[in-house]
Write the structure tokens for this entry.
Amino acid sequence: MRRFLLFGVAMLCGGFAAFWLLTQPSPLPPSVVAGLSGDATRGEAVFHAAGCASCHMAPAAEGEAKLVLAGGQRFASPFGTFIAPNISPDPTHGIGGWSLEEFANAVMAGVSPEGAHYFPAFPYAAYGKAEPQDIADLKAFMDGLPPSASPSQPHEVPFPFNIRRSLGGWKMLFGTGDWVVTGDLTEAETRGRYLAEALGHCGECHTPRNALGGLDRSRWLAGAPNPDGRGRTPNITPAALNWSEADIVAYLTSGFTPEYDSVGGHMAHVVDNFARLPEADRQAVAAYLKRVPPVP
């Protein structure tokens, strides 16, 4: 019995050690951003394409107030309620004291400056496909935004989902850096893929998830229940979205559908962001959507 107990303890310790090793946060190699210098003008386009203000502006902010990234918006999900943090350049309550390397680790790898995992409500699985130069440009733009002294609020995530160390396992399962749509893409389709799969993180809302919250890449952009349990995000694969490329461009510019209905919900923020990009980018997204495999 004593040997059996010792063996059990050894197995338990070994299992815990393996879990601790496999789930440790993995920051980016310093070489990823070494020598990069950000350009705020280019970073403004990255900011809008990535939808940063849509989640991190204060609740009900309008106009120029959307650029004050004070956080506070609440996002309900089956795993708890996530509250967007302050990511303004305030050095105390925001991210004003972060280096480019720390910023890139957060955005692209989901690792905090303290070396902890971020929850994947922050779409770093998509942003991880971004070009490091775009991330440097994004930081340069965000550094010039108005600071806010509003403290970030803690997420309301119950046990066991609040065990951040377990997110290392989630990243191994679902944090793939592979593109979903592959093949011989045109230049426009390739640009559209970058905007939709990386910066725009369209799959985060439009793709169904499994029980662990991972995206079902076999049903890419096929629609999904809204995380808060109210309503559904539509299928935007060619099986359901029969708009022409011109229709898609017009929608991303004006918010009006071909049937003269108007955009609503969180998609209104997406349209507002994409309307600020060059028309060539909206055309690229439209071309990409036509290459997405149709899913009934």
Observations:
- Residues 31-174 form one domain.
